[in-house]
Write a sequence for this structure.
């Protein structure tokens, strides 16, 4: 059963496979904005590699909070630069592939035409438990103005279900395309990490904090912690009414856990929780939660048990 991505995540959502790495590497802020606006259209339409995704100058100005005169220049420069950008992903044979996001662009006063390759279009449209994905609202990331806020927000959302992530300095520089001038830790924190995290925490749906990872006295990486912000009271009330209709958490036998963890691992409603290479590994992770709901965030556990009750034949 495949997830109907168009229905679940329409064009106001950005959805990317987790195997896509170095997503925004070396992009300017305007390139990232253009990319964020274009990929949902590529995902939710039947456009082929020979057909353009069109972003008008008016749309770009409105979405990014720019004056129309400035948007003309910004969109033109971003279109030209985006043509040269590439990303990486890991194939089933463990080889890392580097590929351009698009093979052709065109720009005029009216806006930009972006042509994605067939391979990229497949990556933007294929999502299931074997192709887990990261998702976030387009309007949220377009609020971000700092050069690297969007990159770190993407990484945070990618690892949100695990509560955070750890990354070495080498991998951070590689994924974000950071210049060598940031190699000094103080400069990296002052110019990249702290301003980005402050903006993310202030303007998005998550709180993002970090701590140093050291080897001896040297900082060799960072450990980031991701926490979802409390929902507004009105949303909480609606959520409470929804979950009160069923006693979510319940004791299960080993046989039930083995059976239903396998079933749940293949349901599209939970596919975005998977960062695992196959269904059996994802099922093992789910079985641990069915056995002990407190081993993960309460929101994640509630979601899994809710699907167990509503989408399977399980009876307490």
């Amino acid at each position: 059963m495949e997830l109907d991505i168009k229905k679940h995540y329409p064009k106001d959502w950005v959805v990317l496979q987790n195997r896509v790495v170095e997503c925004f590497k070396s992009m300017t802020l305007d390139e990232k904005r253009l990319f964020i606006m274009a990929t949902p259209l590529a995902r939710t339409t039947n456009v082929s590699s020979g057909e353009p995704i069109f972003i008008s100058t008016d749309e770009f100005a409105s979405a990014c909070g720019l004056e129309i005169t400035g948007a003309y220049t910004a969109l033109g420069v971003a279109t030209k630069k985006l043509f040269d950008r590439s990303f990486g992903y890991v194939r089933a044979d463990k080889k890392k592939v580097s590929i351009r996001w698009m093979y052709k662009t065109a720009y005029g006063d009216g806006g930009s035409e972006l042509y994605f390759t067939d391979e990229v279009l497949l990556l933007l449209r294929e999502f299931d438990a074997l192709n887990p994905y990261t998702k976030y609202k387009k309007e949220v990331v377009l609020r971000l103005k700092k050069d690297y806020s969007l990159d770190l927000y993407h990484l945070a959302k990618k690892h949100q279900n695990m509560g955070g992530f750890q990354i070495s300095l080498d991998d951070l520089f590689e994924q974000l395309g950071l210049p060598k001038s940031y190699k000094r830790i103080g400069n990296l924190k002052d110019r990249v990490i702290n301003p980005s995290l402050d903006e993310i925490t202030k303007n998005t749906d998550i709180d993002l904090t970090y701590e140093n990872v050291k080897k001896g006295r040297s900082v060799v990486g960072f450990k980031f912690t991701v926490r979802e912000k409390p929902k507004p009271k009105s949303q909480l009330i609606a959520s409470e009414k929804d979950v009160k209709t069923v006693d979510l958490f319940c004791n299960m036998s080993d046989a039930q856990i083995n059976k239903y963890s396998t079933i749940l691992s293949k349901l599209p409603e939970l596919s975005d929780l998977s960062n695992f290479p196959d269904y059996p590994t994802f099922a093992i992770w789910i079985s641990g939660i069915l056995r002990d709901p407190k081993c993960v965030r309460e929101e994640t556990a509630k979601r899994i048990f809710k699907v167990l009750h509503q989408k399977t034949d399980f009876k307490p």
About this structure: The CA atoms of residues 24 and 32 lie 7 Å apart. The longest strand covers residues 218-228. Confidence is low (pLDDT under 50) at residues 241-246.
